[in-house]
């Protein structure tokens, strides 16, 4: 299937992109970038670097640098490091970003392939909301929008909100209620699937280039989790990509979802009477993790 990933790389974004590259079911045709874990210019650079590592010559279109309504957020450097890849220094990509902005790339590409393209936003939903606003037919033309974000049981950046929804709640609410075919893969399952230091060591042993890069990134990332008494990191972004190809590993609940856009609970995702979407409320955590590890191990 044709897939576009909207991303803010980010350690777990790199994990997700490498897994998508390894998945034989996926034809990764392009990336769009957004602020979040890093500034949007860093996200674009990092996405291009990951394409170099994967040997992929695909469009990387730069998108939003701040939320639709809220003022800009500082990047999550305390989680992902100053440059997005943990302790690793900034790298210079060999290729340039696409001349189109993310919204233009998304709307043109989806319009050219109606019903064929899955769009997977694994950062704030700003670009996706802007694409729907720019092209009223976008939501009907996508095959599916598979989102890493939200969580019906609570948050991670606040007690109520998951980080991607928190960083642009207005965009999240707009997308979640737009009527497109949507799967929301949030904290209800992604926090149940964890990778510990030994897992990253195994990735490096099995995949000397891709896996080693993930292990190099992981040290800083795992230290952040350890500060909260957690031995490993949640498989957030990769789980959303795995849900595209292996939905049978996830327990889905059909419900409308609204996103709180103001007040103390801003960014919270709550069941509602809005157009229904599929929300991953659980799943086979061991099988999801095993599939992730196995596929990463097939990369060079």
Write a brief caption for the model.
By secondary structure, the protein is an alpha/beta fold.
Overall form: globular
Number of helices: 13
CATH architecture title:
Alpha-Beta Complex
For the record, what CATH class applies? Alpha Beta
Spans where pLDDT lies below 50 across 5 or more residues? none
Q: Please give the domain count.
A: 1
Strand ordering within the main sheet: 3-2-1-4-5-6-11-9-10
Q: Largest sheet, if any?
A: 9 strands, mixed
Q: What is the ordering of alpha helices and beta strands?
A: EHEHEHHEHHEHHEHEHHEHEEEH
Q: What is the distance, rounded to the nearest whole angstrom, between the alpha carbons of the first and last residues? A: 23 Å
According to CATH, what is the topology? Inosine-uridine Nucleoside N-ribohydrolase, Chain A
Number of strands: 11
Helix/strand class: alpha/beta
CATH superfamily: Ribonucleoside hydrolase-like
Residues in helix, % = 40-55%
Sheet-strand content, in percent, reads: 15-25%
Mean pLDDT comes to 97
């Amino acid at each position: 299937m044709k897939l576009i990933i909207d991303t803010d790389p980010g350690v777990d974004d790199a994990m997700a992109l490498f897994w998508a590259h390894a998945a034989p079911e996926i034809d990764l045709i392009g990336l769009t970038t957004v602020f979040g874990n890093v500034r949007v210019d860093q996200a674009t650079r990092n996405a291009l670097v990951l394409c170099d590592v994967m040997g992929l010559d695909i469009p990387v279109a730069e998108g939003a640098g701040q939320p639709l309504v809220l003022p800009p957020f500082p990047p999550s450097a305390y989680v992902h490091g100053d440059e997005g890849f943990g302790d690793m220094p900034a790298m210079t990509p060999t290729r340039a970003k696409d001349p189109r902005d993310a919204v233009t790339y998304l709307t043109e590409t989806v319009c050219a392939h109606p019903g064929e393209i899955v769009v997977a936003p694994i950062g704030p939903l700003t670009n996706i909301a802007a694409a729907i606003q720019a092209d009223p037919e976008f939501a009907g033309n996508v095959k599916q929008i598979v989102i890493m974000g939200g969580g019906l049981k609570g948050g991670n950046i606040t007690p109520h909100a998951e980080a991607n929804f928190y960083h642009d709640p207005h965009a999240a609410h707009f997308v979640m209620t737009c009527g497109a075919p949507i799967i929301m893969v949030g904290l209800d399952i992604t926090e149940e699937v964890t990778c510990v230091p030994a897992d990253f060591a195994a990735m490096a042993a099995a995949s000397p280039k891709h896996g080693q890069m993930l292990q190099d990134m992981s040290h800083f990332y795992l230290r952040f989790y350890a500060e909260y008494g957690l031995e490993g990191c949640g498989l957030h972004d990769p789980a959303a990509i795995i849900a595209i190809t292996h939905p049978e590993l996830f327990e889905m609940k059909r419900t409308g979802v609204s996103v709180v856009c103001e007040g103390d609970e801003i960014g919270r995702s709550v069941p509602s009477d809005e157009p229904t979407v599929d929300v991953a409320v659980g799943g086979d955590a061991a099988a999801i993790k095993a599939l992730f590890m196995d596929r990463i191990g097939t990369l060079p």
